């Protein structure tokens, strides 16, 4: 696990949805459960990336604009700085570079074999573009992890994005690169930021089939969401045969999240994380970089969803019914005046597998079929439906 309290410096200020408290509570919860002390688990201090490393992903002029804004110059709105989504704060460059550097180093550790799995819950900044900030994201650490894997010798890298919002920055970075498969499971762009990621968006002319987008209806439930993930993700990853997987575990698809219209439970999110983990062992000797992402139900959802990801990556999955530590619950009461859950919910969610058949009267099935119809032929997958 890549972690430092300095991650909390990535702070857009009071009232901004991306509150650093969500990271603090997550790590506190994981430590209270003893996961960070388990055999084989290391907590590694992240190192901020230098400008040359960031320039493997971002335009030099943009990096200079971020630095200038951090130094107190008027932020450049044309590159997304100083907006409501991405207000400037004094540590903006250093804080974003630290997140970027953590994912860059995580990928290097995974590819070199120093670790099988690496997790950066502060990461997952999937909206940042080569020359602009977007959607709370300044530097794109997900692209950094993929770029590092490619630089170090990987020939095929799969990226799976489970955030409620389309992983547009990552898709853009590798739109025309056949070495990278980007798979995004998100609320329909017709109803949610960033307005991209339709099923028919399948990659550039030099990389047809390299982008797979599952655009789901509003109010998709956990069982429906798992049906969609199961109907697409395993098949496209098996067809692509990646040598490493980078995944983004934004948990803003939850029913309590204020920034999406989805109805996915923590149980379903944990189940999908287990699937991704198992696929990495099946397909690429367990080489897996897992990142955080969106998630704005700061107390009720984020710490639980990401504790599951960290437990799975540590090969210490949190069993259903595990008591939530009393000290952590007391801290939450003091912090947010909320009554936190008493136990973890981790039992599998029952869902209808795609093999049961396609029902054209269901919105979820129409969304799944649109993706399969658009992407599967380009990946050489036969679709019986």
UniProtKB/TrEMBL annotation:
One MF term in the entry's GO annotations: histone deacetylase activity
UniProt xrefs under Gene3D superfamilies: Histone deacetylase domain
Domain Histone deacetylase: 16-310
Protein name: Acetoin utilization protein AcuC
Claim: Nucleotide-binding is one of the keywords in the record: no
Pfam families listed in its UniProt record: Hist_deacetyl
Family statement: Belongs to the histone deacetylase family.
A biological process from GO: epigenetic regulation of gene expression
Pathway per the UniProt entry: Ketone degradation; acetoin degradation
Keyword annotations from UniProtKB, A to Z: Acetoin catabolism
The species this protein was found in: Paraoerskovia marina
């Amino acid at each position: 696990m890549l972690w430092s309290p300095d991650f909390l410096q990535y702070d857009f200020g009071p009232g901004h949805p991306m509150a650093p408290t969500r990271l603090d509570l997550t790590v506190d919860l994981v430590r209270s459960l003893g996961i960070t002390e388990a055999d084989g688990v290391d907590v590694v201090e992240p190192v901020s990336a230098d400008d040359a490393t960031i320039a493997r992903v971002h335009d030099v002029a943009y990096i200079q604009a971020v630095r200038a804004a951090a130094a107190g110059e008027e932020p450049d709105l044309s590159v997304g700085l100083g907006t409501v989504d991405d207000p400037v704060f004094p540590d903006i460059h250093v804080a974003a570079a630290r997140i970027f550097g953590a994912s860059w180093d995580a990928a290097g550790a995974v590819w070199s074999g120093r670790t099988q799995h690496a997790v950066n819950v502060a990461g997952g900044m999937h909206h940042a573009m080569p020359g602009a900030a977007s959607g709370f994201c300044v530097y794109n650490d997900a692209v950094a992890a993929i770029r590092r894997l490619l630089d170090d010798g990987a020939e095929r890298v799969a990226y799976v994005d489970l955030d409620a919002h389309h992983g547009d920055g990552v898709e853009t970075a590798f739109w025309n690169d056949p070495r990278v498969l980007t798979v995004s499971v998100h609320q329909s762009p017709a109803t949610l930021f960033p307005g991209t990621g339709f099923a028919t968006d399948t990659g550039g002319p030099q990389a047809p089939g390299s982008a797979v987008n599952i655009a789901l209806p509003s109010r998709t439930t956990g069982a429906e969401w798992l049906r969609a993930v199961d109907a697409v993700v395993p098949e496209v990853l098996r067809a692509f045969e990646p040598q490493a997987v980078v995944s983004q575990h934004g948990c803003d698809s939850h029913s309590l999240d204020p920034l999406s219209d989805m109805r996915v439970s923590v149980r379903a999110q944990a189940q999908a994380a287990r699937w991704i983990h198992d696929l990495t062992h099946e397909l690429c000797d367990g080489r897996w970089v897992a990142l955080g992402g969106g998630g704005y139900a700061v107390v009720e959802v984020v710490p639980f969803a990401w504790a599951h990801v960290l437990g799975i990556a540590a090969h210490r999955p949190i069993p259903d019914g595990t008591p939530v530590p009393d000290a952590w619950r007391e801290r939450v009461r003091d912090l947010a005046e909320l009554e936190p859950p008493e136990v973890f919910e981790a039992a599998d969610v029952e869902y209808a597998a795609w093999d049961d058949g396609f029902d054209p009267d269901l919105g979820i099935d129409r969304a799944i079929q649109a993706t399969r119809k658009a992407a599967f032929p380009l990946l050489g997958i036969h679709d019986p439906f």
